[in-house]
Batch of 3 targets.
Target 1
Amino acid sequence: MPAVIESVGSARPRGLETRERMGIDVADGPTLGISWDDYDDGVLWWTMGAYVMPQTINTTLGMARDWRLLRTPRASSIFRVRDSALAGARSRPTSQWRRWPLTEGYAPEQVNTYAYRTPEVMLASAQAWKPATLGAQTHTWQATLGDSAIVFTTYPGDLLENEFAGHWTGGWHPRIAQNRTAAIILNDQPRYESGIVQVISDALFPDYTHAFFPRGEFDEVREQGQWVMARKGDGYVALYSNNPATWVAGDEWIDEELRADGRSNVWICEVGDETQYGSFDAFVQQVTAALVVVAGDLTVRYDSPGQGLMDFSWTGPLLVNGTEVPIGPYPRYDSPYAAKEYDGADPYVIRRGGLSLTLDPASLTRSEG
C-alpha cells in the first residue's frame, strides 16, 4: 500500500471537510459515448441501476424480451413490477419523466457528497440528491460516533422489502443540506400527475418517517422537547423531528427506532464534541435553546449552535448567516488531501506531509513521492 494512503487513513483531523462528486447522469450518456439504445451499453446502464430511466426503459424491455429473461422466475417478478409501474408511461415526453418518482430514483446517477469529521464524530450526507424519488439500497446521510453508535433517518420503502428497498434502505429520498456540524433533512411525499397513481402510492407506502437511533450503543441519551441527544465518549449528536417522534416498542427495533407520523417532516442533526462545547451539558443546553422554525412548505430556519443561522427549503439554496453555501456541483475530489476537477484532464494527486501519490489516467501511470 502506498505510504501516503496509510498516512491519510491514520490521520485524526479536527474539522476536516471533504466534498466529492461521483457518477454520471443518464441524460449525459451520448455525450460520453454511451448509447441509450445499444444492448452492450444497456448492460452498462444496468450496472448503474438505470433499468427504467426514460432514456433506457425501451432498451431494458427489449433486452429482457430478446434474451428471454422474462422466462426466469427472478427476472420475471422484477420486470412485472417495473412494467406495472410504467404502464401507460413509456410514451411520456422526457420532461414529464422527471416527475415520475417511481422510476427516477433507482439509478444513483450523479451525486454530490459532503462529510465533516473530527476525531470524535463524523456527519456525512448526499446533498440535495433526487428528492422525493424512490430509491433502492441507498443511504443518504449518517452521523457516526462509533462502529455501532450511528444515527440516520429514512422515509421507508417497506412495500419493496427484500426486493429493492426496505425498512432502513432506500425508500423516498429526502432533500438534504449540510454545512459542517449541522444537516437539515426534508422529507416529503412524491407528487404525481395522475390522481389515481397518487391514491395508490399513498395507500401502499408507509405514512411515516423514522430514525435509527440505537440507545444502547451510546454512553448517555437525553430527551428534551423535540430533541433526542446522545454522547459516545467525547462525541455528541442531537436529532430533532418537527413531527412528534416516539420510540417504537414491541418489535425488533425496540430502543433503536424513533418514528414520526406523516409523509412530510423535517429532521435536523447537529453534532459536536468536547473540544467544541466543553461538556455534554453545554451541548444539550445550546441545542435545545436553538431557534427552529418550520413552515408548511418545508421552509426551515435553524439557528445552529455550531454554524449560525441556516435557511433551507424544498427548492431553494442553503443559506448560512445569509450567505449561500454551495451544495453542488462539487469537484471530483476536494479535501486537504486530494483535489481533482470532475471532468478535467488533471491527474489524481493525494498528499499528506511529504508523501504523495499521483495517478494519471491519460498515461495510465502511478508514481509515489
Target 2
Amino acid sequence: MTVLMPLLLAATIGAGSTPFTPVSDERVLAHLPAGGFLFREKLAAPGSLTDPERLVLIDQLINAGKSQDQPRLLGQAEALLRPRLHESASQWQLLHAEILQWSHDFKAAEKVLSKVIASEPDNSRALLMRAGIRQIRGHYRQALQDCVRIPAWVPPLVRATCSLQARSFTGRLDTSYKALAKVYAELHDQSAQSLWSLGVLAEMAERLGRDREAETWYRQALLIDPESTLTLATYGEFLLRQNKYPLALRLLEGARSESLKLLYAIAARALDTEDSEKTLVELNDMLAAIRLRREDNHAGLLARYALDIRGDAVSAVRLAREHWSHQKAPADTLLLVRAALASGDRVTLAQVQDWLAANNVRDDRIRALLAAKP
C-alpha cells in the first residue's frame, strides 16, 4: 500500500518552482461535510464554476475520495473534469492521471503523465506520480529514474523516500532501509511527507523480517494521522499477520471503507466476537454494491475475501493472479503467494519466484511462507 502514498503526496506538491506551504497550522485546506459532499451548491450548478474553482473542487474531491476510499467522490471529480479533458494544460491532465490511477488504470495514467513530463520535464508532481505508478507496476528501475529527476526544490525527505523506496526493490533493501532511517531521523516533521516516509520504513522493515521495528514505525505514523486509511490498512494487515487480532479490532473499529471493513471482519471472525456476523453482513453488502457498480479494480479485495473469509482458495488465487497482473506492490505479491499455497497452484508459485529473482526483490515474509510449504 505504501507505493500508493506518492500518488496522494504528489497532490500536495505543485508543478511550479515553489511548493505551496500553508502559512499556519490553522489554515483550512478542505472541509468534509457529513455525507462526504464538498461545496454542494457548486456541485449542483457546475456550469457556473470558474476554472480556478473547478480545479480546486476537483482536487479536493479526489483527495477526499482517496483518503476516505469513497468512489462516489472520485466519480464526481471525474464528471467535473470531463469538459476540460480536451485541453492540454498540465493542471487538467494531472487531475486526469490521478483519477485514472485511483481507478487502477495504471497504464493509461502513466501515458498521460508521460505526455505532461515530455512538455514539462521538471514537473515534480508528474514525476512523483509516475514514479509511484511505475513502482506499483513493478518497473522499479524506471521509477528510480523518475525519482532522481525530481527537482531540488522538492523537500529532501520526499526525494530521498522516493529514491530509496525504488532502490529497495532492486537488491538493495537493507542499505536502502538504513539510509532512509537516517534521513528520516534528520528531517522528519509532522507532515504528510513524514507520514509517507514512515509507511515506507515500516514496509521495508516487514520485508526484512524486522517486525518489532515495523510496529514502531507504524505507531509513529498513527501519531501523525490516526485516521489515515493507508496507515490503518497497512498496520491492520501487519497485526493480522502477527495474529494480534484484539489489537487489530481496536485499530479498525468503526472502519467504513471496504478494505478496512474486510480486515476488521477477518479479526472479528478469528476471535468469534459478538459483532462478527453483523460485520460480515455489512461487508457482504459492500461487496454486492461493488459488483452492482461493475467496478473492475477490486480483484485484490475480492481475493482476500475469498481466501480469508470464504476459504475459497481456488477463487482467491484466480482473483489474486488477475490483480497481480497489473499491480505488484509487496502486499499484492504476498497475497498471491498465500493464495497459491492454499490452492496448491505450483505454476503460479513458480511464476512469482521467477519474477522475484529476475527483479532481485527481497521479501522475507514470502521466503518464510515458501520455506514452510510441505
Target 3
Amino acid sequence: MIVGERNTGTARSFLQSSWINAQAWLPALCGSALLLASPYVFRLDGKPHSDLLQFFGRFHPVLLHVPIGLILLLPALEIAAIKRPGLGDAAEFVLRAAVAVTIPTLALGYMLAYGAGDTGETVLRHMWGAITLCIFLFLCIPARRAWKAGAHVLTYRLLLPATILALIWTSHQGGSITHGSDYLTHYMPRVLRRFFRMDIEETNAGSFFSLHIYPVLDAKCVACHGASSARANLRLDSYSGLMRGGQDGAVVLPGRPEASMLLARVTLSPGDKHFMPAEGRTPLNSEEISWMRAWIRAGASPTMARVAGVNIATTAEAPPQPVGDYSALMPDILRFQEGQGPKLVAVSSKPSDGLILRTNDVSSSFNDAQLAQFQKFAPYIVEAELARTAVTDAAFDTIGTFRNLRALHLEGTSITGSGLAKLAPLTQLTYLNLSGTKVTAQFASSIRNSSHLRHLYLFNTPAEAGDKAGRITP
C-alpha cells in the first residue's frame, strides 16, 4: 500500500515537472513557428508594395548594430560568470534584451525587402539567416533556465555558439547586399580568381560589351540588380540576365534604343521616382549613356568589337591642365546660378578646375546669341553641355574661344559640321558628341583624326556610314 502511494507520488511529480518544462519551452516554440511561417504569408515576389514600408524599413541598418553587440556580449558574460557568479544575472538580462531588439530588427529588414520588392539569393539567405538567429535566441531563454537548474546542460552550451555562428552568417549576407557579393574579392589577383573560378560570365574579352557596357552595369546597377538583390526580378550582372529582362519584360531591345526600358530609366530626370540608379547612387554620366545607346542601336551583341559611330582612342589621357582663377567673376556666375536659364557650375571647390556650362533647363530655346554671352568666361569653361539646344554651326565661332574646353556635347542639334575645323586649336578637347546631328563624313574628317580627341560620337549621323573602323579602347 505504502509502495503504491510512493509510486503514484513519483509519477505525479514527474508529470508536473514535465508540464512545467513544456510550459517553459512553449512560448519559444510558438514564436519560432510564427517566424518560419511569415515568409510564406508575405512572399518576397520582387514587386514593390509600399513606400511606407520602405520608410520604416530603412531604419533596419540603424537598429541592427544593437542586437549584434548584445549577442556578442552574451558569451563574454557567461565566461566571466565562471569566476564572478554575479555576472550571470547580467547575462540573463542581456539575452532577453537581445531577443527584444532582434525581433523588431528582423521586422524592419523584412519591411525594407517586401516594400522595395527586393529578392535574389543573397536577400533570401539573409532573411532565413535572421529568422534562424531569432529562433536560436528564443530557444536560448528556456535552455539557459534549464542549464542554471542543472538540467539539459548540453542544450544551452550548444545553442549559444550556434547563435554566434548564425549571427556571423547573417551579418555576412547583409554586408553582401549592401556592398555587393564580391566586396571581399573585387580586388583579388586574377591568378586567384581563375583558381577559384570566380570570373564573370564569359563573353568576348575584347568586345564592346565587356570593355564598356558591363563595367558600367557592374559599378552602378548590380548592387540592386545582381545575385545579391535582384529587384523586379532583373539581373544585370551578366549578358544573359540583361537580355532576359525582369518582371516588366525586356529592358534592352536590340536595334531600338528609344524603346529600351534600361536606357529610358537612366536618362530620366534624377527627381523622377523611376530614375535609375535609385537611392542616391551615382548616375551614369553622359559618356556611359552614349556608349549604351550606340551599343543597343548596333544590335546589343555580346561579341562585337566595334560600334559604328563611337571612336575611343587607345592612348593614355593626360591629366587636365589648370585653367586659372575665375574668382573675380563670381558675382556674374552666381547670377546665372540663381536664374532659370543656363548655368555655370564649378567642377570642384578649386577655381583652377574650371566651370561647366549647363543648358538642361532651357535647352530647346538656347541659341547662338545666348551662347555668345558666355564668351567672357571662355578661358574657364572646361565642359559645354549644348545637347538638344537650338545652336547652329555659327556657334563654333564662340566655342572656338573656349581654349580650355575638354568636353563638348552637341548631340541632337541641327549643326552640319561646317564649323568643326574651328575646334582644331582646342588642344584640351578630348570628348566630342555629335550624335543625332546632320554632320557629314566630309566635315567630320576635319576633326576625326585629331591627336588629342579620345572620344568621338557620330552615331545616327550621315557620317556614321564611314565610321566602321573606329578606335576602340583595348
